[in-house]
Amino acid sequence: MSNVFTFPDKPAAPMGPITARWEVVASYGEVGPLRVALTRRLDMPPGFIHVAVIGTALITIEPVTTLPDDANGRAIADFTGPAVLRAIEHAEVEFVAQPEAC
Predict the structure, then answer these.
(1) Which of 65, 87, 91 is nearest to 78 (CA)?
(2) pTM of the entire structure?
(3) Of all helices (H) and strands (E), which one includes residue 97?
């Protein structure tokens, strides 16, 4: 496979853990093990909020959108969060109806 993929060399020294610290500002709801929430990163400069999908036990956090941390950004987040939650609910219904599609 080396003729198809070029794999990077391993780093000489092991890299330290890269962790992002998140604060949940508001929760829009849960579907199964997933939660959609308004979050803020604590390890980055302030000024942004994120609508994110949070996996089981806060192991995975996937930002869906990043918005300014002001009244306009919060208003957009309050429309976006429920829409993301509804999309996940629709996907769950479709996967249950057709498990072979998973």
Answers:
(1) 65
(2) 0.73
(3) helix 71-97
Q: Position 18: which residue type?
A: I
Q: Which residue has the tokens 């829409």?
A: 83
Please check whether residue 39 is in contact with residue 61, taking contact to mean a CB–CB distance below 8 angstroms.
yes
Residue 52 CB neighbour total at 10 angstroms: 24
CA distance 32 to 36: 11
Sign of the alpha-carbon dihedral angle for 9, 13, 14, 19: negative
Contacts of 49 (CB under 8 A, 6+ apart): 25, 38, 39, 40, 66, 67, 68, 69, 73, 74, 77
CB atoms within 10 A of CB 81: 21
pLDDT reading at 1 higher than 50: no
- Cα torsion 36, 29, 102, 93 to 10°: value is -140
